[in-house]
Each structure stands twice: as structure tokens, then as C-alpha cells.
Amino acid sequence: MSAISRHSLLETIDRPADLRRLERKRLAQLASELRAFLIESVAQTGGHLSSNLGTVELTIALHAVFDTPEDRLVWDVGHQCYAHKVLTGRRAGMDRLRMHGGVSGFPKRGESPYDTFGVGHSSTSISAALGMALAAKQKGEARKVVAIIGDGALSAGMAFEALNNAGVADADMLVILNDNEMSISPPVGALNNILTRLMSGRTFNAAREGARHMLGFAPPLLELARRAEEHVKGMIAPGTLFEEFGFHYYGPIDGHDLDAL
User: Is the peptide bond before 219 cis (omega within 30 degrees of 0)?
Assistant: First the structure.
């Protein structure tokens, strides 16, 4: 009797171009298989499990939307990148993760063209992405650049220096803040307090969820409401830390909701 693989869809993905050919409705199955694969794999090799389980849907969404590796993804902290490695041709090598001669536990440029920046731990992604975006602009290349940074990594001074420069640089770049409230130790400090308050107030969330429930019966109105949300946000919570740096801020977004991502 032939066996049916628990990762049948995942096994058809050898590079992001394969993922981009899938119907969107199949991405949820891919996320489920990818999460199961990571649990099984890391259980054997050791490594950073929870941070990678938290970025499964985000990783799929990024590779589905952007034309990687032409478009650049810069991971920060680098130990969020296991799902990225699995989807970029290194699935078979995950059984030697972080071993001599095996797959690196962090993005490594010499390992794959999809690893656009060599990163050890944290706080370098926005600077690197800004440099890539400005280089593309000077060369006249229509390239998108995305920095994915955790809330712990965002607390370092280098990240703020990069935000300060990027906000006035007129660079075509996207910064994704993965605010999972997880660091080596519990996050502390003023920035953590800001992120906790950012768009988490009961007034805004209650109004938003109530409106979504009512407008769910009229999809065209719901779509109009989504477009208006940024303007409503400005009236209820004027100005965020990131908008003060010169960024357009969107969110928060449920990091496990593929459609929203």
C-alpha cells in the first residue's frame, strides 16, 4: 500500500516561483504543512522553534506577493528565517540545520541568492534594506525591498538610526514589525510600552470589530470601510511613533491571517 505524505503540497515547492503559481485558497494548507514540518525538523536538530512558527504565514505571504529573489527580503532577527529557507530550496537540508556543512540557522548570502543579507542576531535589517533600496533607486531598478524586524530587535539604537534616515530618504521600502512580545527575556522599556498601546485601545478595536460585523453582510461596504480605516485611525489615535519618523503606518495585522497579510 502506498503512503500519502503529510507534506504533499510542501514537497512541490522547491522555490518561491512554485508558491506563486498556487491558488490563494491553497496557501492555508501550505502553511499548515510548513508548520508541521518545522516542528518535526527542529525537534530533531534543535534551533529556534517558536519564533519560526510565528512567521509561517508571514513568510508565505511575502514570497507570494514579492518577486524574490529579485525583490529583497532582509530578516531581523535572523532566527525567524527557517520557513523562508524551507520555501527557497533548502527543505532537504533542514535535517542538518546548524550543523557543520549543513544549513545555517541564520540568513547566509553564500548559501542562497534568497538570503540577501548575512545576519547574526539583531537590529541591522532596516539599515541594510535602506541601502539596498537606495542602490536600486540610483541604478533605476524597479526592485522592492522589505525589512522584517522583531519587537526586540527594534529596541536597539541601530534600528532607530535607520528609521531616522529612511523616513527622509524617499526610498521604496517596506518595514514589517513582527511584534510577538518575545525576546530572549521579556521585553521592557519605553518602546515596549508604546508598542503595547499602539492601536490596542478598547475604543478603536471595539469600534472596528463592531463595524466589521455589521458590514460583513454587505461586502462592497466592508471593502470601503477597509480603505477608510487609516483615516479613522488618525482621528482616534493621531500620530504613531513610526509616522513621526516619516513612515506610513498600517496595522496592526493578525500575523496568522493569510488574507489580511
Answer: no
φ, ψ (nearest 5 deg) of residue 51 = -65, -30
In angstroms, the CA 159 to CA 125 distance is: 8
Residue 196 has pLDDT above 90, yes or no: no
Q: What confidence tens digit (pLDDT) does each residue in 165-177 have?
A: 998 898 999 999 9
CB pairs under 8 A, 24+ apart, for 19-24?
19/60, 19/63, 19/64, 19/87, 20/63, 20/64, 22/64, 24/64, 24/258, 24/259
Confidence of residue 212 (pLDDT cuts 50, 70, 90): low
pTM of the model: 0.79
Cα(36)–Cα(40) distance, integer angstroms:
6
Alpha-carbon torsion, ordered 94, 9, 70, 24, to 10 deg: -140
Cα(30)–Cα(146) distance, integer angstroms: 22
For 138, the grid coordinates are: 540610483
Q: Would you say residue 2 has pLDDT above 50? A: no
Neighbouring C-beta atoms of residue 115, cutoff 10 Å: 24
Res. 248: pLDDT tops 90: no
